Amino acid sequence: MIRTEGLAEATEETFEAEVLEAALPVLVQFTADWCGPCRQLAPVLREMAREEADRIRVVLLDVDRAPGIAVRYGVLATPTLMVFRAGEPVTSLVGARPKRRLLQELAGVLDPA
């Protein structure tokens, strides 16, 4: 089981409120309990959620429990990281990565010009 303390979890029922209607950009990790790289990424996301709380919200979505949302956004692999702004996906990354690299890859989303 992925340790999720410090991270919000979205479901089919809460996705709209947790992600699409959020005031801040939202980084959604499409994850699954059986996904090893997802477990590797969990502490990175917890740290990022804590340190970047004023710039981005981090939410987990279990693809096995919310398959409709995964299909809607074309998620074919876990972990997929997708950033939503104003209810729309603006960037997508596949695979685990260290926090420093993740922040570099998300710099344009976190600090739009």
From TrEMBL:
Annotated organism of origin: Streptomyces badius
InterPro entries in the record: Thioredoxin, Thioredoxin-like_sf, Thioredoxin_CS, Thioredoxin_domain
Coiled-coil segments: none
Keyword Transport part of the UniProt annotation: yes
Pfam families per the UniProt record, alphabetical: Thioredoxin (PF00085)
Limits of the Thioredoxin domain: 1-111
Biological classification of the source: Bacteria, Bacillati, Actinomycetota, Actinomycetes, Kitasatosporales
Name of the protein described by the UniProt record: Thioredoxin
Database matches in PANTHER family: GEO12009P1
Swiss-Prot/TrEMBL keywords: Disulfide bond, Electron transport, Redox-active center, Transport
Statement: the UniProt record of this protein carries the keyword Transit peptide: no
Listed SUPFAM superfamilies: Thioredoxin-like
Family stated for the protein in its record: Belongs to the thioredoxin family.
CDD domains cross-referenced by the UniProt entry: TRX_family (cd02947)
